[in-house]
Specification:
CATH class of the largest domain: Alpha Beta
Distance between the termini: 30 Å
Shape: globular
Strand content: 15-25%
CATH topology of the largest domain: Rossmann fold
Radius of gyration: 19 Å
CATH architecture of the largest domain: 3-Layer(aba) Sandwich
Helix content: 25-40%
Mean pLDDT: 89
């Protein structure tokens, strides 16, 4: 089963996975098919976004104290959704979480190579969460506007190059458990009480160290300071905050960003369960792009 969003019929079909985050306002009536990644917690398996929603997941995570395990959709599952979607139109744009962070893209590629009944164009966003959501939003709007595939791909490249994600979290336990950072580095950081600033490298789409702070509050303050070292303060930004069941941290980051930049805000996003499984509760981050570098969406 896949998640289905929106109404109407467009010329090209869009397939994605549940590695993205979009606000309800961004989803609107857009039509796309999202194949869910899976989470196993306390011996029970859930399909992210179908069987369990963010608020329920984070409460369950806190209650059980167990470490969740995630798994990617299989090539067979992608093949099934491609066959179903191709019945509406054989032109499919398949947009996915970074291949540097998940095996999902490779599963989709294997299925696309096997299925000869459609013209499938794969996109490795080299990102995740809200930043992936920006590329997905751009893709859907471009498809809705009837853009040709080459123009859509050029748009997604521009969005990826213009945008950046930076986040922090109160502890590293989940990242260590999920193998997203080395056990030794994570253990040392935990022992020292260090709170990391984490970004995603655009070349390989993997987590990258963007700085560190002594406390979680200081780490949130350090995010706009990091941005200010790359972009002059006062620069108009398109910006959007994502958080894992931490509205207070999100509000602090809003205020800290407003102190340094003129932000054109999109509504906050709740981080999806499949991503929160690797970070735990409390994560706060922002996706941003200078307005003069962000391409105009259809």
């Amino acid at each position: 089963m896949s998640l289905f969003f929106g109404q109407g019929v467009f010329q090209m079909q869009i397939v994605t996975d549940s590695g993205f985050d979009l606000s309800p306002q961004q989803k609107g009536d857009f039509k796309f098919h999202a194949l869910p990644l899976k989470i196993t917690l306390s011996g029970v398996s859930y399909r992210s976004g179908i069987d369990i929603q963010p608020e329920e997941f984070y409460k369950l995570l806190e209650k059980t104290g167990d470490m969740p395990i995630t798994s990617t959709p299989s090539p067979g599952e992608f093949l099934e959704i491609y066959e179903k979607v191709a019945e509406e139109d054989p032109d499919i744009l398949s947009v996915h979480i970074s291949s540097g962070l998940s095996g999902t893209y490779n599963s989709a590629r294997t299925a696309a190579e096997q299925f000869k009944g459609a013209n499938i164009t794969l996109v490795d966003t080299r990102s995740l969460s809200v930043e992936m959501g920006w590329q997905l939003e751009a893709a859907i709007k471009a498809v809705q506007a009837g853009w040709p595939i080459d123009k859509i791909l050029a748009l997604l490249t521009k969005v990826r190059e213009a945008s950046e994600i930076v986040f922090t979290l109160p502890n590293l336990t989940y990242l260590i458990h999920g193998g997203r950072i080395s056990h030794l580095k994570g253990l040392l950081a935990s022992l020292l009480g260090i709170k990391p600033l984490i970004g995603v490298d655009k070349a390989e789409g993997k987590y990258y160290d963007r700085g560190r702070a002594r406390t979680f509050k200081q780490a949130i303050q350090a995010i706009p300071a990091y941005i200010a070292n790359r972009i002059p303060p006062g620069t108009p930004l398109r910006a959007q905050i994502g958080h894992a069941h931490n509205p207070e941290g999100a509000e602090q980051l809003h205020q800290e960003m407003e102190n340094l930049f003129s932000c054109e805000w999109l509504d906050d996003c709740s981080i999806s369960p499949v991503l929160g499984a690797h970070t735990g509760q409390g994560l706060v981050g922002v996706v941003f792009a200078p307005l003069d570098q962000m391409p105009e969406l259809p």
